[in-house]
Amino acid sequence: MTDAKTADAMTVIARAQASYVRAIDSDDLEAWPDFFTDPCFYQITSADNYRRGLPVGLIWADSRGMLKDRVSALREANIYERHSYRHLLGQPAVIAETTESGVREVDSETPFLVLRITGDGPTDVFASGVYIDRYVLDGSSALLRSRAVVCDSSRIDTLLALPL
Amino acid sequence: MGGVSATTADPMRARTWPRSLTRVPYWVYQDEDNYRAEQERLFHGPFWSYLCLEAELAEPGDYCATFIGEQPVLVTRDEDGQIYAFENRCAHRGALIAMADHGHARDFTCVYHAWTYNLQGDLTAVAFADGIGGNGGMPPGFCMAEHGPRKLRLAIVHGLVFGTLDNELPDIEEYLGEEILDRIGRVLAGRKPVILGRFTQMLPNNWKLYAENVKDSYHASILHLFFTTFGINRLSQRGGIIVSEHGGHHVSYSAIDRGQQADDEYSRQRIRSEGEYRLTDPSMLDGFSEVGDDITLQILSVFPGFVLQQIQNSVAVRQILPVGVDRTRLNWTYLGFEEDTEEQRLVRLKQANLVGPAGYVSMEDGVIGGFVQRGIAGAAGEFATVQMGGDGYSSSESRVTEASVRGFWQVYREALGFEVAEKDDDA
User: Fold this and answer.
1) Could you list the mean pLDDT of each consecutive 10-residue stretch along chain B, which spans 427 residues?
2) Size of interface A-B (CB pairs under 8 A)
3) Among B252, B256, B391, B400, which one is most buried in terms of CB atoms within 10 A?
4) Cross-strand pairs, B201
5) Are residues B204 and B373 in contact, defined by beta-carbon separation less than 8 angstroms?
């Protein structure tokens, strides 16, 4: 992979991720599934489970439909105290890139910090970790084929409702 | 100690327990002295506490760092293939003997002064015991066998490891009773569990609020919309609750009632949970018969803080651990079984979405205890009322009952040794 291509992948991914966290943090959850391909893979797990190869997730989805169902459950079904997130992302590290049958796929890892504000506060550190991703790149667009949200800690305070 | 009569000036006097099991005083979720009494009388008392799964100790040398109440405990498998448990506390200065939650070791060496223990918890070496060059060292009378962490008595039930510090306590089979034992066996007997993952949920409430929530079959299909809408659990389904003879353990279960038409009981009660909600990808609910019967839900609790859950094909154990008067650690361990096909494993991973800290049907349980903890602030002298289904704690075919919650309090108030009121004020 040339430096220019890496820089280009970083830019496209960084832009996609900026929109991704903006959608979640501004309560535009309905837009969240659209950041993924269909089928796709999305999982929230802990570093401990990930390291041990234990497959279960706090959230585990293998279709865009399952992501949509998360959103409608949060809107229509589940009861939780009103809260919001503030995602702070580091720079995406481009790990690998492949092109097969004209489809360009990039593996990247991006560290995140998520603050949670329940009601009117306080602002609490809710989660830190890394997104372990596979993006499908097409020109200036990037869609997630796979995202493992690997939280550094196995502990979740109270509950996890909104996606990370 | 709460419940013991004292002088008029003593605020403890207000803590006599109500005669009727339908009343639960709110101070029991708030009081620091009571919390300390629980550690001694429940967790160190004559009760079996869940420690870990045998499957987490597959090989000799494997160990688990767990807890009995607040107290750290190590559970190990020694070279003889047997399981042992002892306090995770060095006999020298009290430091943790092992720090990892799950690991593998030949022996344990305390990092502070290198006192060494074997996998059975016996002290085997003391660094510089003979001093250096004839100076220092332990006194000649020092006997390693007299120094070591306290060892726990253990019992294994269908792969679940329980422990106690009480030597008088009856065997686990008698403690659980036949019905509870059978229901544990229904899910676990003859199968080898595989750990699919673990999460810890930190709850902003007293541990008993979560224990009660687990036993409360009345709330399940009212608070949790997901259950009712998709027919996973409706109170009108065939099912029931079992409360153990002494009250402390329970099972709530429901089964597909193949003969029954959809009923309109929920819409007549104007309960929020009758929704129009439909899934885009309903594959999550395409399960299989877990053990060859029609039971799709079985929630089982063992006093004081153990839960075994089957919600469709989501099987998990939960360990309820107090970490403060208003803080609880809830450890979830998700299970599959060695015999699972690839398809069945996929179903389990999808249905894990139903449970845990982000679970469609358990998310609410993470907040509801906190809502109560906050709601009862300043109301230490008031009472919760648990009258649904009467004032006793017997098994029933109806799940519209709080019988198993009352059973919990029956065992609890006896264990803590409260004085029971001669008569309730407004009873």
Assistant:
1) 43 72 96 94 96 97 97 97 96 93 94 93 90 87 90 97 96 97 98 97 98 89 70 64 96 79 52 63 90 93 98 96 98 98 97 96 91 96 94 90 96 92 77
2) 120
3) B252
4) A156, B330
5) yes
Chain A residue numbers touching B352 (CB-CB < 8 A) = 56-57, 60
Residue identified by tokens 């401990």 is A48
Mark yes or no for CB contact B200/A159 under 8 Å.
no
Decide: pTM greater than 0.90: yes
Cα A138 from chain centroid (whole Å)? 19
Positive or negative CA dihedral for A81, B358, B351, B373?
A: negative
* Tokens describing residue B151: 């060892």
Contact between A161 and B363 using a beta-carbon 8 Å cutoff = yes
Q: Name the residue of chain B whose CA is nearest to A64's CA.
A: B281
Task: Name B132's Cβ contacts closer than 8 Å, sequence gap at least 6.
Answer: none
CB within 8 Å: B366 and A158: yes
CA distance A126 to chain B (A): 12
Q: A36-46 and A141-151 as β-strands: parallel, antiparallel, unpaired?
A: parallel
Are A54 and B198 inside 8 Å of each other by CB?
yes
Of B141, B145, B133, B119, the closest CA to residue B63 belongs to: B119
| Chain B partners within 8 Å of A49 (Cβ) | 197-199
